[in-house]
Structure formats: C-alpha cells, structure tokens
Write a structure and sequence with these properties.
By secondary structure, this protein is an alpha+beta fold. The chain has four helices and eight strands; from the N terminus they run H-E-E-E-E-H-E-E-E-E-H-H.
Length: about 180
C-alpha cells in the first residue's frame, strides 16, 4: 500500500512542476490573405507575412511590420495600386524601422504585378522575396475585396468596450435607445 501511495505522490509531483506554461494568446486580426502573402493587425501594428521565394527552403516565412501612424496602411495600398496604373521606372524603396522594402513591378503574361523585396535588418546581404501579386491579389491581401479594410483605423476591442459612450462610426448613433 505504501508503494502505491508513493507512486501516486511522485506522479502528482511531476505533473505539478512541469516545464510547460500556458502563455497569453496574442490576438492577431487577419486583414487579408492570398496564397502565401497576408496582412495582419495587432493593436496599431500591421505585419505582412510572405513565403520567401529567395531561399531553397520553401517553408521559410518572412515578415515585416510597421505602425499605422499617418494612415500608412492606406498609403502603402495606394502606392502599390498607383504602380499598376503607371509602372515606375525602377523599384520603389521604403524604409521601415527594422527593414528596407522595395516594391518591384514587372509584367507577367502581359499583366502588371508587384513583388515585395525585403532587405532584412537593413542589410543588403539578407534578401527575402515574396511571390508576384496582381491587382486583384493585392486587393485581397489589403482587405479591399472583403471589406476588412475598415479594420485599419479601428481601435483595439478592449479599448472599445471600456468607453461605450462614443458614437459608432458605422451606425451614426442610431442604435442608442431613447429614454421615456
């Protein structure tokens, strides 16, 4: 009987002092995704993930992030869209806090496309390249075709719940109940 109790005590002790911890789940909101390129939002930071075609390992996923300070997400979308209408002579270079991004335009099968070229940590030795995207795919990634582009300027859900006296921009305040 002592051996059975000792065995249960040891098993219980091992399960209490395990090495696995449950961490807080960070909420990422998917704005849009097409194939291997996606745009995600967490608070006011936006991240573009893509499968790096520049490596021999096809499972390499790279990303670059930026804050939406001055409607930068909408500005990036407009810059990419304008490049489809009037293709630039060379690559458009964008400097982010951690990386340098180039927008490379090229015609594939007669259709204008864009590719993200990332210089990781601003080092020209380490380069990541996304797949080529046409206008329809860019619209999908930026949530224009699904209506998720409305999430660009929306504050986080936790902040929305604490201040319920503000008028919702989508309803114009019509959802308030009148007092009798």
């Amino acid at each position: 009987m002592r051996k059975i109790i000792l065995l249960f005590t040891c098993m219980f002790g091992i399960s209490v002092f395990s090495q696995i911890k449950v961490l807080k789940n960070e909420t990422l909101v998917e704005i849009g995704k097409d194939n291997s390129v996606g745009l995600y939002k967490k608070d006011d930071q936006f991240t573009i993930n893509y499968q790096d075609l520049n490596t021999s390992n096809l499972n390499t996923i790279r990303s670059f992030s930026f804050l939406n300070l001055n409607a930068d997400v909408e500005g990036l979308y407009k810059m990419i869209s304008d490049g489809f209408i009037d293709p630039p002579v060379g690559n458009i270079t964008l400097e982010l806090p951690n990386d340098i991004i180039e927008l490379h335009y090229e015609k594939n099968y007669g259709q204008p496309t864009v590719q993200f070229i990332q210089y990781i940590n601003k080092n020209r030795k380490y380069v990541g390249k996304s797949q080529f995207l046409n206008k329809k795919q860019v619209d999908k990634v930026f949530g224009k075709s699904t209506g998720k582009s409305a999430l660009y300027d929306r504050p986080p859900a936790a902040a929305n719940n604490t201040n319920s006296s503000k008028v919702s921009p989508t309803t114009g305040g019509k959802d308030k109940k009148s007092r009798k």
